[in-house]
Amino acid sequence: MIRHTVAFRLKHPRGSAEERSFLEAGRALADIPGVEAFEQLNQVSPKNNFHFGYSMEFADQDAYQAYNDHPDHVAYVRDRWIPEVEDFLEIDYTPLG
């Protein structure tokens, strides 16, 4: 299993229509085949400057790669993520032991 996570901050003002539009568009990632346990998260720790997070799981590396290559994911990254995300940290986990 692979847990794919990303914490991020948008270029848009907090609470703006643009922020809501970005997050709404991101919900479609859950519909890509292979995505399991998709969550959009509100980051609340004062220890970093990120505002949101996405978390999802994949059965294995092949499912994760298929997600990365899926046209809907590629379009989201190109059309929304790159132009609208100011900063992010991506971490992918596999279980220990």
Describe the protein:
- The protein has 97 residues and is α+β, with helices and mostly antiparallel strands.
- It has a single domain, classed as Alpha-Beta Plaits (2-Layer Sandwich), CATH 3.30.70.100.
- 34% of the residues lie in helices and 33% in strands.
- It contains three helices and four strands; from the N terminus they run βαββααβ.
- It has a four-stranded antiparallel beta sheet.
- The longest helix is centred in the last third of the chain and has 14 residues, at 71-84.
- It is globular and about 40 Å long.
- The N and C termini lie close together (12 Å).
- The mean pLDDT is 97.
| Neighbour order of strands in the largest sheet | 2-3-1-4
Q: Any idea what the shape is? A: globular
User: Helix segment count?
Assistant: 3
Please give the CATH architecture: 2-Layer Sandwich
Specify Rg, calculated over alpha carbons.
14 Å
Q: Major beta sheet, specifics? A: 4 strands, antiparallel
Helical content band: 25-40%
Structural class: alpha+beta
Number of strands: 4
Low-pLDDT segments, ≥5 res = none
**First-residue to last-residue Cα separation:** 12 Å
List the helices and strands and how they pair.
Blueprint: E1 2-10, H1 17-26, E2 36-42, E3 52-58, H2 61-69, H3 71-84, E4 85-93
Antiparallel strand pairs: 1-3, 1-4, 2-3
Concise summary:
The protein has helices at residues 17-26, 61-69, 71-84, and strands spanning 2-10, 36-42, 52-58, 85-93. By secondary structure, the chain is an alpha+beta fold.
